Amino acid sequence: MPRLKRRPVTRGGRAAEHRSAAPGLRTSPGALRATIRLRRLIARLRPAIIHANSSRAHAYTVPAACRRWPVVWHARDLAPLGIAGWFLVRGANRVIAISRAVAKSLARHGDPARVTVIHNGIDAESISPDRIQGDRVRAELGLGAGQPLIGMVGQLVPWKRHPWFLEAAARIASAVPQARFAVAGGDLFGDHPDYESELRARARSLGVTERVRFLGHRADALQLIAACDVLLHPTECEPFGRVILEAMALAKPVVAANAAGPAEIIEHSLSGLLVAPGDIDKMAAAVVGLLQRPEERAPIGARAREQVVRNFSITQTVSRIETVYREVARG
Length: 331
What we know:
Glycosyl transferase family 1 domain-containing protein, four-stranded parallel beta sheet, alpha/beta, 2 domains, six-stranded parallel beta sheet, Rossmann fold, Glyco_trans_4-like_N, single chain
């Protein structure tokens, strides 16, 4: 296969991909027009392979490609696909799943042999404690020297389980009164307009309003993670969890649900802590243990970074995707 040349034909990042994770596959009134335009573009470019980088992109690509061009679908969601799953899996020559959990969810829709698991990777050289510090964010939040900060970073959507974070925060604050908490992320598409106000009301009812800061979308999310002493990631249905990799690359201990993507990233007690999904008491106890025994945080953080460098580098991810391309191109 000749040297690979890439030509992106649509825009969209991680947030756009997650919007397609809503139950079923939403389509806009212009979906048919978009499919026709995409078909014309494919006919003009005549690509060796089409890489559909989300479920929504793949839903447009399958009819546009008309089985005349090989398609690789990058599956990034754990949402139920229903009958659309059959259409999507069979419309791809190969499927790249970002985790074993995603691959398992697709198995019921078609031939599992079509699915290859390739975990997301990050640039751990750029995302490192030497390059990214959290001092400015800690000053912004008014934190004193040594005052612990526990963070949750992710879209402000219900499946991320922010109420569990708030309930854990109340328990943590009872044991470590000086602890403070930050919730970063926004409802980027306006699908849940009342969610933040509901969370603020929940924080009031739990008595942690003065301890929890809702920060909205942050362009400096990495600096916020660097400012944290612990990252808490409570959701049990995370397809992968890039933010977990980012925290680990910054040598921050992560407490996460022992399910789906996080369970494939974290080695329990070595590079982070895993707790039973939805067990708020154990979630809080894990964080309290890390706060009360700071001598354990640094070794866990160091091993976490080593694990990211070893197993989750962007170079490895790109190489594995290129291998899939070559296999598909050979037929």
